[in-house]
Amino acid sequence: MKRYEKQIHNKVSLAGLVSKDGSGALHGSSSKLDESTSPTIDELTECLFFSPGDGRIWMNDQRMILLHGKSFGALRQQIIDTLGLDEARKLFMRVGYMSGARDGELVKSQWPEADPASIFAAGTNLHSLEGAVKVETVHFEFDKSEGLYDGEFVWHNSLEAEQHLTSYGVSSQPVCWMEIGYAIGYVSCLLGTLVIFRESGCLGMGHTHCKLVGKNANKWPEGQQDVDFLVKHQKKKKGGPYSEKNSFPVAHDESEEQESMVGVSPAFLTVSHALSKVARTNATVLLTGESGVGKELFAQQLHYSSKRHRSPFVAFNCAAIPDNLLEAELFGVEKGAFTGATHSREGRFERAEGGTLFLDELGTLSLSGQSKLLRALQEKEIERVGGTKPVSVDVRVVAATNLNLLDAVEKGEFREDLYYRLNVFPIALPPLRERRDDIPLLVNHFFKKYCILHEKKLSGITLRASQALLNYDFPGNIRELQNIVERGVIWAEDHDSVDIHHMFHKEPLPEKFLLSVNAQGQLGQQSNYSSENILEKVETLQSGGFSLDSLERTLLKEAVLLNDNNLSAAARKLGISRAQLAYRMKKYNLG
């Protein structure tokens, strides 16, 4: 059975090397291990970065906050006093579990090629980096194929225990509930089965530090008690926070609730709530917002959430049709109505019968077109061009515009009566810069979509590029983000990662967008790419007979040489993963 094990007696990272014994098992030594194996503490620290301009802090693609320890203690005390110790413990364990599970997903997605032992060990560094505890590893061993785990750790400087002592004094039982939940969430997420951690000693009980033991849930006496703390009062539903298949709670991405929409930000959820309210009615809806915010997608979501979802959704761009053809397109044509009308044809209103008609770029309609539309909305009937009989229509109209229609009314460019006919239920769609929490989800969605569409085999998007996208203002909103990701996918080579210079091929980003924390805890600017400067240097080299392949080959050789053949360290210097470096070395026969 393949087993990983680490034995550590010094306060060092577990991201180390392992060696095989005769049984084929993998064992760690008690000496200091190779700290260059990904993910290193430096790499994890770079995942924490700041966007001071709009008040956001990120851990990779998850938004974070800085909270005063005393403020956390006051909140914790209020919850305990209100709910009681048992209910408060359950709440804090669940919060910690979700945090640990999300960090586990972060590490798995960011370092897919990393050695499994290093992935498990990264959780101890992340827990420390986020200010919860200083983790010292005594030992741990696991077997992913069998779903087995056993570990022992020491926690120093537990914030939760310190605040409990401040509020209540010495406790008779362990009090690091949220931190225990974090450990359970992180390891369980990686192993795919429930691993329970318990404190055998706790600073909150008057001990000098906290001692932690973790093992499979079925190895603990009364292990079901811990499961109850994690999942009680939560609904078991498909895609929800509890999975019967894995028998432990799993991180739930709220975006899974939306089949055609992607978002979890407050601005997105506010719009989604408004859509759900109006969807059950037949009211006319007016969607407003900047160009590129996805008005048609929101209109489709409204339609498919309504009782009209089994009938057609018909979209019509008012700016795409000349005014003299507008009436025919909207209301249809009778045979012989004009030269070339050789047969009768339905208009958009009739095609949308029983369903939804989406009128995009409504503000571009001429006054004549506005008058014809107003009559159709008022009378709920239309008359085909060349026809003599009115045709009743049952259609819900959803209109959209990026113009301020009230300003247009004041200028005499838009009919006031039509405006109020359309403005029954207005919904203002937020620009992407106001829903930054959705950017990671959208980027991941578009990245997968365009890798499939363009048949590209890419390893992901670099951390630096992800940070840049989180801080970019996106004047073109979701449409611009979609184009940027598609451009990056096209420019990047197979087995490579999409980086800033792939996405912003001619548009260098301001350095203020790339602020990160280094391993010393200092906030500073990351190096930025300027594609024009890079191209200038390449052109200069090529004029001297130096090719791009020669340049890449030289960079690889120098990086490996300068780092004493340590491929992990060399890859970090080049800003790529170890697997990507190995691929390039094989490509140039540098083995």
Q: Can you tell me about this structure?
A:
The protein has 591 residues and is an alpha+beta fold. 42% of the residues lie in helices and 16% in strands. Helix 2 packs across helix 5 and helix 3 packs across helix 7.
What is the tally of helical segments? Answer: 22
Helix content: 40-55%
CATH superfamily of the largest domain: Trafficking protein particle complex subunit 3
Write out the strand line-up for the largest beta sheet, numbering strands in chain order: 1-7-8-10-9
| Coarse morphology | globular
Residue-averaged pLDDT, rounded? 78
The Rg value, from CA coordinates, equals: 30 Å
CATH class of the largest domain: Alpha Beta
Summarize the structure in short.
This protein is of the alpha+beta class and 591 residues long. 42% of the residues lie in helices and 16% in strands. The chain starts with a strand and ends with a helix.
